[in-house]
Design brief:
The chain is an alpha+beta fold and 143 residues long. It is built from 4 helices and 6 strands.
Length: 143
Amino acid sequence: MRFMVILKATKASEAGEMPSEALMTAMIRFNEELVKAGVLLAADGLRPSSDGARIRFSGNRRDVTDGPFAETRELVAGYWLIQVRSLDEAIEWMKRAPNPMEGEASEIEIRRMFEMDDFGEESLTPEARATIDRMHAEVAAKS
């Protein structure tokens, strides 16, 4: 099972404060453990929302709003993509992570990702599944 682990933003991350060398070292060490265990698929920090934008969809209309965005606790500061056997295993791994926000309370959210098998035959035709498989293979070959 694949899970996205979402690191919630804080005032410090939204202000663009960079982590200390000690935190970066601890985080690299933790990510290295995930890699050695064959669990880590991807991990990155995100720049503050002031460097981003939102697009609101309403029918055919697209409205773009530039950052920053007000509700810090609703923003994402980084993520991990991991592959483990269960939610319990994902929780156990992430409890071992260093506190990602020095001097502040940090929060992460763990969400299971959809797999192709989660979609029934009524949602995806065999042609659509083949196209998705081809796209996944192309992306994997480029990374």
